[in-house]
From TrEMBL:
InterPro entries: GH, Glyco_hydro_17, Glyco_hydro_17_plant, X8. Its EC number is 3.2.1.39. Gene3D superfamilies: 1.20.58.1040, Glycosidases. It catalyses: Hydrolysis of (1->3)-beta-D-glucosidic linkages in (1->3)-beta-D-glucans. It comes from the Eukaryota. The keyword Acetylation does not apply. It is found in: Cell membrane. One of its GO terms (cellular component) is plasmodesma. This is glucan endo-1,3-beta-D-glucosidase. One of its GO terms (molecular function) is glucan endo-1,3-beta-D-glucosidase activity.
Length: 503
């Protein structure tokens, strides 16, 4: 009997430890990235996922529940927050069966292969789609009920992102309160979040706060730059010092919830960032400022310092956003919030020394030139011949028996030649084009013993961002057939033709 009691005690202790570990892990601060799709040349979902893996991004938020993205994200371990678009809110908020159908198609069909951890029901509904606000909480409850029916409510949390503009009188934070006109919706919503253990989701944009302050907010305060104590903002009621807009707004949201008697709902930031380019009336939308803000934000979140009034409490944050979106309407800044171009090239190199292994684009100049997905095989062959001829690339590594001979197809060999030329030209602008069949990527295309020029020798376990699979085949003649022809006149003719093509 004693042995059995000890066994039961041991088992209970293990369960308790597991639960404690789960809570601790859940409270770990993380940096995620939003994935917008308003691009004229939107990468294929497999390319997007390859970029995420190469950059070690483990948390993403989608503005919808795109099937292609959810399939591509399967079996990657990347944690995914999906969304019910605002235009679907009225239907879901008025019909339990519509919500159940949405969960069935967009969650149950993909989970657990795709690691869905959250559902955003709409986005900034109060300010962007106010006519749907009356059914917002119903929509959240219906989605939650569908998750409960599928036994997924513990794994997947339901919430809705709010614009920080719904918080009034946000400084000093201790005086902040929600816009009272929304209380009939906000209070039931906060009750829902509290009862389900979900986060209050908040979109925080210090750039806009700075722009709209008419000089009241200093640029360094908005950019999260270190400030001497005399330049920090002080909450006169709590005597707490604030060195940046981000922390002040997070604490303001806590005070606004407390004003409504909600004191145990954690905050997560679903959007924050800084534009890298703007119109003439947006002089502070610059590469340097975008780099400064996002680098400081990432370090701040991952340092787990929390906020001045809630030290040590994680404020996980999703950066807005992965790509520059050239189809976004509005001012130039709207199109330039991305960390990367559509081809996977960093807009700027983040300053993340000491921030850990997140967003690897802080490794300076690690870019490669690869064959474009879907490029015409004959054009690839012509470009390959030019690179190995007039382009003066040393293509000996692709000869039969050498390290880069396999895989034996034009795509793999063209990628090696393009990248060699790109490196030989010092990665100068315009040296990775080859009549439109090449593109720059941040993923190392090296494989096996074939180490590409410019590589550190470390292999990536993911596929190339812009190039098709190195195992794909092509109807164009493999490059080694040209090498083995042994006909000097034929080779000279091919070189002459390619020289004319690329002039």
């Amino acid at each position: 009997m004693l042995w059995k009691m000890e066994s039961v005690f041991a088992l209970t202790l293990l369960v308790l430890l597991a639960e404690v570990s789960f809570v601790a892990a859940d409270d770990e601060a993380f940096i995620g990235v939003n994935i917008g799709t308003d691009l004229s040349d939107m990468p294929h979902p497999t390319q997007v996922v390859a970029l995420l893996k190469a950059q070690q991004i483990r948390h993403v938020r989608l503005y919808d529940a795109d099937r292609g993205m959810l399939v591509a994200l399967a079996n990657t371990g990347i944690q995914v927050m999906i969304s019910v678009p605002n235009e679907q809110l009225l239907g879901i908020g008025q019909s339990n069966s519509t919500a159940a159908n949405w969960v069935s198609h967009n969650v149950v069909a993909h989970y657990p292969a795709t690691n869905i951890t959250g559902i955003c029901v709409g986005s900034e509904v109060f300010t962007s789609t106010p006519n749907a606000a009356p059914v917002l909480v119903n929509a959240m409850k219906y989605i939650q009920s569908a998750l409960v029916a599928s036994n997924l409510d513990r794994q997947i949390k339901v919430s809705t992102p709010l614009s920080s503009s719904v918080i009034l009188d946000s400084f000093p934070p201790s005086q902040a309160f929600f816009n009272r006109s929304w209380n009939p919706v906000l209070i039931p919503m906060l009750n829902f979040l509290q009862s389900t253990g979900s986060h209050l989701l908040l979109n925080i944009y210090p750039y806009y706060d700075y722009m709209q302050s008419n000089g009241v907010i200093p640029l360094d305060y908005a950019l999260m730059k270190p400030l001497v104590p005399t330049k920090e903002a002080v909450d006169a009621n709590t005597l707490v010092h604030y060195s940046n807009v981000f922390d002040a707004m997070v604490d303001a949201s806590y005070f606004a919830m407390a004003f409504l008697n909600f004191t145990n709902i954690p905050v997560m930031v679903t959007e924050s960032g800084w534009p890298s380019k703007g119109d003439t009336n947006e002089p502070d939308a610059t590469l340097d400022n975008a780099n400064t803000y996002n680098s400081n934000l990432i370090r701040h979140v991952l340092n787990k310092t929390g906020t001045p009034n809630h030290p040590g409490i994680a404020v996980s944050t999703y950066i807005y956003e992965l790509y520059n979106e050239d189809l976004k309407p509005g001012p130039v800044s709207e199109k330039n919030w991305g960390l990367f171009n559509a081809n996977g090239e960093p807009i700027y190199i983040l300053h993340l020394t000491g921030a850990g292994l997140v967003l690897a684009n802080d490794t300076t100049n690690q870019t490669y030139c690869t064959a474009k997905e879907g490029a015409d095989p004959k054009m690839l062959q012509a470009a390959l011949d030019w690179a190995c001829g007039p382009g003066k690339v040393n293509c000996s590594a692709m000869l039969q028996g050498e390290a880069c001979y396999e895989p034996d197809n034009v795509i793999a060999h063209a990628t090696y030649a393009f990248n060699s030329y790109y490196n030989r030209m010092g990665k100068a602008p315009g040296t990775c084009d080859f009549n439109g069949v090449a593109a720059i990527t941040t993923t190392n295309p090296s494989h096996g013993t074939c180490i590409f020029p410019g590589s550190t020798g470390k292999m990536n376990s993911v596929g190339n961002i812009t190039a098709p699979s190195m195992n794909s085949t092509s109807s164009a003649p493999p490059v080694q057939n040209l090498y083995n022809l042994g006909s000097l006149s034929f080779l000279l003719l091919r070189v002459l033709i390619c020289s004319i093509v690329f002039l």
